[in-house]
Amino acid sequence: MSPELELFAGVLVAILGGAAVGVERQRSGHATGPEARLGGVRTFTLLGTLAGIAGYLTGQGYPLAAGLLVAGALALVVAGYVRASKHDIDGTTEVAALVVLGAGVLGGLGQLRLSAALTTLTVLLLAEKPRLHGLVARLDETMLLAAARFAVMSAVVLPLLPQGPFGPAPGFRPRELWMLVLLFSGISFVGFAAQRLAGGAGYALTGLLGGLVSSTSVTLTFARLSAAHATQAGALATGAVAASTILFVRVAVVVAVLNGALLRRLAWYLGPPFLAGVVALALAWRSLHGSASAPSQLKNPLQFRAALEMAALFQVVLFAVHFVRVWMGEGGLLAGGFVLGLTDVDALTLSMTRSVSSGTSIDGACRAILIGVIANSLMKAGIAIVIGGRRFAWQTAASLAAMAAAGAVMLFV
């Protein structure tokens, strides 16, 4: 695209952005009637045009002229707010006008994507007013305080912790452990919020999303919750099964990115246990919809103490895995896969996929990954039985045992 066309496209994006916001303001009724705000589609389109011209003039070396144009538009917006505030102090339309001006100037300067993104987001926020207000109305003091504490934990405490490692191998890494605490607490909080907003199915959705990060942490968190809140056991078990099922998808994506040839063989091994997980999830979901779900009575959305205990347990197991691998040596590929799968299937997948390029057979790497997944399923089943409530224990453990059994069968096929 020639420079002239790029400049024209920037001004055009500014015009269209202003028009989009103006259409929303006109459609919502804020631009008409006795209590009309700043303007509608025509006013906002002209504001976008003016801002685009100002951006163009700035890029051509005429900042004074551009500044005068923007200042005139700002004066118009302020005057409109002063007039409208006599009967309504809402300033949404005027703030939207300021965004149109800023995004329009960016468009005139050639920042087409950023300008379009800003105006698109503005239109979305304006159009979704009823849903956003309804969402805020559902929030309570418990959720707001938990969100604030989590923000402090992640934005204040995390940057202050040293990276490490400290001590003997594999070492103690404070920042990584605190990230695990954030992960566990975050899953608890998201589950709490989703359950409040979506009812009993909220935990199922949370487990599905949390499984994209760590199915083990989801199982640990949900097992503890089920022990304290038996009425939510079915939803929590569904979430744990969903997390363990989505694990297969996560492994497949990692392998596909690193070594597509390995994926074709790995799909043969992981296909049956994945199908077992899908069937178990479908049955759990059906039972969830067939039963009533009592409202959540959780008082501690972050489950901070439990998260600290989980992180400490992870560190202990990490040392144990290291010493076992040193003792067994590199020759125990399958045994190493079983041990490493107890704590980190992702690390096992990465190491096995990369080891193919250094001489490990594709079939051997796939079998090691499968054994790691089986070990991880068995460990999560044990967690469900030892920590979880009765219904959570049998429902989750039975599903995980079915996945492990399907995987074990594939080892001998």
Describe this structure in words.
This protein is mostly helical and 413 residues long. The chain folds into two domains: 132 residues, no CATH class; 272 residues, no CATH class. Helices cover 79% and strands 0% of the residues. Helix 1 runs antiparallel to helix 4. The longest helix is centred in the middle third of the chain and has 30 residues.
What is the overall number of helices? 17
Question: Judging from the principal axes of the Cα atoms, what is the shape?
Answer: elongated
Uncertain parts: 290-297
* Gyration radius, rounded: 28 Å
- Terminal CA distance reads 58 Å
Mean pLDDT: 80
Order of helices and strands: HHHHHHHHHHHHHHHHH
Classification by helices and strands: mainly alpha
Portion in beta strands: under 5%
Helix content: over 70%
Summarize this structure briefly:
This protein has helices at residues 3-27, 41-59, 63-84, 92-108, 112-127, 129-138, 141-160, 174-198, 202-210, 215-228, 233-258, 260-289, 304-328, 333-341, 345-355, 362-387, 390-411.
List the helices and strands and how they pair.
Layout: H1 3-27, H2 41-59, H3 63-84, H4 92-108, H5 112-127, H6 129-138, H7 141-160, H8 174-198, H9 202-210, H10 215-228, H11 233-258, H12 260-289, H13 304-328, H14 333-341, H15 345-355, H16 362-387, H17 390-411
Any key phrases for this structure?
single chain, 413 residues, mainly alpha, 2 domains, 17 helices, 0% strand, elongated
